[in-house]
Structure formats: structure tokens, C-alpha cells
Amino acid sequence: MVDPSSDPPSSESAGDTSTAIVTLRTPLPMSAALATVAAFFAGVVREDLSSLHEFGEATATVSDIGNSPPRVLNLFFVWQQRFQQFDYGELDGSSIYREAEVRTFRPEEVHALPRRVAAAVLAEPLAPEDLVLVVPITAPAIKNQRVFGDELTFILRRAEARFRIFRMIETTPR
What we know:
single chain; alpha+beta; globular; Nuclear Transport Factor 2, Chain: A; six-stranded mixed β-sheet
């Protein structure tokens, strides 16, 4: 019997059959993950660090897997440095990536990624609702200067009704 005067339990991503009452959270649509990636690139083109803060976790990191061992730095520090070094506004109007080419992986599918990328993704535990998006870059250079690696891998974590960037993996352009 359910007590009608009690509040329902807080919503969870998954439930246990031993629990009498479970309130499950509706999964977010893939469009929410793609919107986070699109907002990230829009913020990069505008060189708007505050926009990146809006879509990234405060502790978000970038793993540069071009180094051995991979170098891990704060996401916002990395992009602040890049904005000082390059003029990402030059990419305005360019197609940086094609949404149709974005590949999505759930935590249990990470083993299908290339070994170095999978190792970087698994360097920190993934939450059950995390998504891994691999974004091939179509416009990696500005005036023959590399400003992106060949692909960016985003680890997105649910935050209420949207996804936020938890980590990013890239082979930093040299």
C-alpha cells in the first residue's frame, strides 16, 4: 500500500527489484547530447569562455592522449590558452564537424573505441547515464595552423534536463 501523504522517492536512473517503490528518471534524448556539443563549438567560435562554463562541469578536464602518459588539464584553462593563441572566430560559418558523423557510445560500449581513447575514457569511472560522443573534426585548421585534433571525444554527464561536458579527450594539435 502506498501512503498518499508521503512524497515519492527521489528519481533514479535505475532501480532495484528489492525496493518497494522506485521513481525512475526519463532518459534524455540524444538531441540533448548533440545540443551540448553544438553549444560547445559555438562557444569556441565566439571565444566565449563563459559559454563553455555553462556547458561544462566546473571540474571538467581535457586529456591530451598525444602525450605518454596522457596530460590532463582543466578544460577552461586549456581553452583560455587556445583563445589567446588562435583566432577561432575565423571558423565562423565553417562546418567544424558534421552531426551525422558523430558516434555515440554508452559506458558499456566504450571497449569498441580505439585502445588509447578507451583507456582515457575509463581513466575515471563513468556513471550509468554518461554518454561518450566521438566527434570527427572537418575543419581542424585556421590558415594552415592546426587548432583541433582529428577528433574530439566528449564524455557527457547528465545534469537535470541536459548534458554537461564532464571530460574531453583529444590529441592536441602541434
